[in-house]
């Protein structure tokens, strides 16, 4: 499908922080995507927790499979809307590069440990990974991605952090958090695809784990609708097939809802180009009915899965692992690798090193340094 006038155009990119000659066979956004895929941070996502710890089962989602699912949903929706699929894929694949081991437990622990040193936020860390921490090129730190890819990766940002970024890069990727602007439509789409993917795969993993049942989920209107619809057509369907078909229908309807609601919003705003689309306010959206249904599902998952005693018990142990590691590295710089030990900001270097760990590496390091084995 041809690119719509309001889509981001790689030929009109705002460029890179370090100028580079164009690639002869790839657009700027294709080049960004390829750099993400070949990065060390991207490979490590395969061993980072989504909800269940990486070693708890081979079929549960990881940060890597989650990112791939966001990319798939984003490209499917973006194609129907005439957006740039390469930019969508880049942002989707990169949006969790800064996530800690052990999921949101790691984010909360590092933020607490870093309270006196500027805090820690995994989304801001994703930008830090692509701007500074990846060491692959002789002339600059980071991956030197285009403005549009970096803008999309910075999904949210506190005013304090935005001002810090703005001071270093006036008019850059953080400006919109100070002025109330919007990112590209491709970035807006990735934010929504992230939510859709999260809900769907956490329903799947929650039921597969035995922590959530289909009977419980039948109390959630969005799941109930498609579960009953599936059973009406296939009354003898059970188990994995019933779960998979229910989730497939739920995903499809959310995709169609986003496409329909967004087309209506774009037609009303009539943006002439990508910059006008940014100024038009958030245009990627659910219908009001689907927004309500999605929010209800998120509330259910928060109460019944993310705060399930079995998940919480492992979260508590994971938090202890990361607190111990932070204090050890903070107190003894010799325990850090040379790339981190030479930093002028020792506390931030400790957080960078820990945030980049996989679940299993963090556990091995903790056992090596403390002699304790907190997980089997």
From TrEMBL:
<feature type="domain" description="HD">
    <location>
        <begin position="63"/>
        <end position="199"/>
    </location>
</feature>
<protein>
    <recommendedName>
        <fullName>Deoxyguanosinetriphosphate triphosphohydrolase-like protein</fullName>
    </recommendedName>
</protein>
<dbReference type="InterPro" id="IPR006261">
    <property type="entry name" value="dGTPase"/>
</dbReference>
<dbReference type="InterPro" id="IPR050135">
    <property type="entry name" value="dGTPase-like"/>
</dbReference>
<dbReference type="InterPro" id="IPR003607">
    <property type="entry name" value="HD/PDEase_dom"/>
</dbReference>
<dbReference type="InterPro" id="IPR026875">
    <property type="entry name" value="PHydrolase_assoc_dom"/>
</dbReference>
<dbReference type="InterPro" id="IPR023023">
    <property type="entry name" value="dNTPase_2"/>
</dbReference>
<feature type="region of interest" description="Disordered">
    <location>
        <begin position="1"/>
        <end position="29"/>
    </location>
</feature>
<keyword id="KW-0378">Hydrolase</keyword>
<dbReference type="InterPro" id="IPR006674">
    <property type="entry name" value="HD_domain"/>
</dbReference>
<dbReference type="Pfam" id="PF01966">
    <property type="entry name" value="HD"/>
</dbReference>
<dbReference type="Pfam" id="PF13286">
    <property type="entry name" value="HD_assoc"/>
</dbReference>
<comment type="similarity">
    <text>Belongs to the dGTPase family. Type 2 subfamily.</text>
</comment>
